[in-house]
UniProtKB/TrEMBL annotation, chain A:
This is Insert subdomain of RNA polymerase alpha subunit. Keywords: DNA-directed RNA polymerase, Transcription. Pfam families: RNA_pol_A_bac (PF01000), RNA_pol_L (PF01193). It comes from Calocera viscosa (strain TUFC12733). PANTHER family: DNA-DIRECTED RNA POLYMERASE, DNA-DIRECTED RNA POLYMERASE II SUBUNIT RPB3. GO terms for molecular function: DNA binding; DNA-directed RNA polymerase activity; protein dimerization activity.
TrEMBL record, chain B:
The keyword Repeat does not apply. Transmembrane segments: none annotated. InterPro entries: RBP11, RBP11-like, RBP11-like_dimer, Rpo11-like. This is DNA-directed RNA polymerase II. Keywords: DNA-directed RNA polymerase, Nucleus, Transcription.
């Protein structure tokens, strides 16, 4: 079998650009799908609104709260899915509880993700099962559950995420419960805001035909990936298959490690975790086939 | 309120079989395989690598309904191996491929980290934050710019 190759072209704290070759188009596309929809993160899943005199309705605010990226370093091991947890409601192993309590007393103010305060598990008002699973909590990364923003990023330009703007006298009070999940369930659990995927920048394979007004070349400029491949010759090679795949993965910040030196390693868990998860899927397929 | 749990799209139900094989009675060396709670991610990848296998005469998959989370894979071989054997072979190939790519990612990220560390020796404003809360252990021989 052909040896796969991988080359990272660019790496930033919230994005990675890489080129992959030696694999099938089908495999590359599966990798893209996995990066987008199968990596576990934490996101607010339930909101109990106590007071809402803001201009936005409860559902609107709940949706916005759910979309906030929460730092989820090593969420795969550091947290349980609700469905796998023996607890009845929520516990420290399968949930994180937040409270938001804002009242505008003067002028106008912005409610942001900074107003979301994490409630420590010992202050939760519910019965918790005493199970010996403390090691799960130890596996969590630093700032686990903290909304991605100025609290997790040393960049002074970094701004918190806006939720709603309040006028004098308006208030918002709610309790939010965050859960572990994957983006197949809801897109809020996706660790990526975008995944760029391209192959055959010169359209040598003629997998697409360009619509144009007068001049095809002028209206369809080549992408930046075009420099990686030789321009097409005169003869159309009908046996050619896609060989190089260009990925550009941009994260939301939920799986963005805070540390200056760690940020370059950010997408390793994003890619590798799910790859190992897929391994498990294949293994289970194999096991059931052998039976 | 009466909606099904959302995770039913990707977790097996009670007693549900992950994979079911039905041997085809009309076509020689053919089988239809139903894989539950999986989608195009796995199906297309398996199909792609089945077609690369010289023993395979036909391989195709379909997701019968977009709201039903399963796919059907049809395989016909040339008779030197059964469809299930070929599928197992392909799964093993894919597993090694995934392991290889995982290794490449690790290697490349470590290399990039070293490069970036050289490019911006003082890091971002706010100073150097402590290491150690990351899943992957730091390489023992990796030198940091502050290690004198």
């Amino acid at each position: 079998m052909e040896e796969p190759t991988l080359r990272i072209r660019e790496l930033q704290k919230d994005r990675v650009d890489f080129v992959m070759s030696g694999v099938d188009l089908a495999f590359a596309n599966s990798l893209r799908r996995v990066i987008m929809a199968d990596v576990a993160t934490v996101a607010i899943d339930m909101v109990e609104i106590e007071v809402n005199t803001t201009v936005l309705v409860d559902e609107f605010l709940s949706h916005r709260l759910g979309m906030i990226p929460l730092t989820s370093t090593n969420c795969e091991e550091g947290m349980r899915y609700k469905r796998d947890c023996p607890c009845l409601g929520f516990c420290r192993y399968c949930a994180i509880v937040y409270e938001i309590d804002v009242r505008c007393t003067e002028g106008e103010m912005n409610v942001t993700s900074e107003h979301l305060t994490m409630i420590p598990p010992d202050q939760w008002d519910h019965d918790e099962e005493a199970s010996a699973a403390e090691d799960i909590l130890a596996k969590r990364g630093k700032n686990f559950g903290v909304p991605a923003g100025p609290a997790t990023d040393p960049d002074p330009q970094r701004k918190p995420i806006s939720l709603v703007r309040l006028r004098k006298g308006q208030a918002l009070k709610a309790r939010c419960i965050a859960r572990k999940g994957i983006a197949k369930e809801h897109a809020k659990w996706s660790p990526c805001s975008a995944v760029g995927f391209e192959y055959d920048p010169h359209n040598k394979l003629r997998h697409t035909s360009y619509w144009f007004e007068t001049d095809e070349k002028a209206e369809w400029p080549l992408s930046k990936n075009a420099i990686e491949e030789a321009p097409p010759g005169d003869v159309f090679d009908f046996t050619a298959v896609p060989e190089q795949f260009y990925f550009d993965v941009e994260t939301t910040g939920s799986l963005n490690p805070q540390e200056v030196c760690m940020r370059v390693r950010l997408p390793v868990p994003a890619c590798a975790w799910k790859l190992t998860m897929q391994c498990r899927v294949w293994q289970s397929c194999k096991i059931s086939l052998l039976r | 309120m009466n909606a099904l749990p959302r995770f039913e799209l990707f977790t097996l139900g009670d007693g549900e079989k992950a994979i079911e094989v039905v041997e085809d009675t009309k076509i020689p060396n053919a089988a239809t395989i139903r894989v539950a709670k999986q989608d195009h991610t796995l199906a297309n990848m398996i199909r792609g690598y089945l077609l690369k296998n010289p023993k395979v005469l036909f391989a195709g998959y379909k997701v019968p309904h977009p709201l039903e989370p399963h796919f059907i894979l049809k395989i016909q071989t040339d008779g030197t191996a059964t469809p299930v054997e070929v599928l197992q072979e392909v799964c093993t190939t894919l597993l090694t491929l995934v392991a290889k790519i995982e290794g490449k990612f690790k290697e490349q990220f470590q290399q990039k980290e070293l490069e970036v560390g050289l490019e911006e020796p003082y890091g971002a404003p706010g100073g150097r934050l402590p290491r150690g809360d990351y899943t992957e252990p730091r390489r023992a021989n990796a030198m940091d710019y502050l290690d004198f």
